[in-house]
Amino acid sequence: MVKPIVLATLLCGSLDILLAIILTLSRGKDVGNMLRFVASGPFPSATSMGDAGALLGLAVHFALMAIMVGVFMIAARAWQRLTDWPSTAGVIYGLITYVVLDLVVVPLRFPAAWPPSGLSIATQLFAHVCLVGIPTALIARRFLRG
What we know:
Elements: H1 2-26, H2 31-39, H3 50-78, H4 86-109, H5 118-144
């Protein structure tokens, strides 16, 4: 089960961080600051760590992605039906990850980020469903289907 987790983590993590980079640049913001902000979730001092903080942010991003992907792979192994309808399972899982991360974890760690803007909700839902949930479910189907 390691191969599908690694593959999905690399694919979904890359797609998601690419979207974050595009959105950051389109707003005229610094990508390094965005990555340091990601790292500041578990490591508050990362915002003042320069390039090391940005690299730490990238590592935190991929670690979170590995957790999200791993949870789905474990569930798909336990409930084979998740691989029967990967698009549906991926959409549902993307919605679940959105709720957990963006509506529970982020507001608990960064209360000032609440409530999210309409644009933030739309981009995060797109990312969680289309760039994480569906690709993860398709990879699970490919590797875990009996």
